[in-house]
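hey
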């Protein structure tokens, strides 16, 4: 082992070789090289895809509506008046007044199927990456996320389409959350 006196020792028997002779290099390394910086940017893209808002906005009839697959932001979309009118149900409240609402089942499906998709995507991503390679697999799963976004964006008034789009996007998000940090 290397002691404070820069000599390699073994079983407390001093050796006559210095650290340099033993092949040990204690020269300081740069903390951030260009390659490690680019790799850090690449890895952070997985966090950006999974953890931050990536809204998709389209114009329909003069009103803006958005869909997002981030679990923290979907609650805001569930309260938007235009989103409620498109994908909610016209239901009475306790006083008999009708308004646009989401039932517990409908809102649960919209919110929860992304998480179910991430679980399934993370489970099936590793065997696929083993077969076709990590780079190609990341590209494939990016395409799956994009397809999920397109399904959600194309939804006009069918909440089922939002649910399926979130499930498909969840497959890609789960797979990318497994593959990108590797």
């Amino acid at each position: 082992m290397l002691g404070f006196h820069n000599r390699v020792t073994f079983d407390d028997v001093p050796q006559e070789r210095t650290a340099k002779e033993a092949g040990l290099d204690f020269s300081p390394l740069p903390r951030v090289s260009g390659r490690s910086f680019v790799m850090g940017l690449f890895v952070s893209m997985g966090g950006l895809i999974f953890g931050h808002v990536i809204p998709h906005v389209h114009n329909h009839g003069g009103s803006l509506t958005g869909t997002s697959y981030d679990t923290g932001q979907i609650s805001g979309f569930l309260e938007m008046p235009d989103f409620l009118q498109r994908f909610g149900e016209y239901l009475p409240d306790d006083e008999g007044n009708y308004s646009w609402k989401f039932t517990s089942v409908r809102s649960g499906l919209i919110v929860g199927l992304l998480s179910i998709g991430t679980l399934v995507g993370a489970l099936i991503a590793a065997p696929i990456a083993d077969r076709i390679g990590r780079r190609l697999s990341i590209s494939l799963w990016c395409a799956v996320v994009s397809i999920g976004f397109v399904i959600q964006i194309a939804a006009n008034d069918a909440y089922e389409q939002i649910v399926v789009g979130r499930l498909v996007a969840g497959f890609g998000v789960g797979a990318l959350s497994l593959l990108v940090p590797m």
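Confidence is low (pLDDT under 50) at residues 52-69. The chain is about 55% helix and 15% strand.
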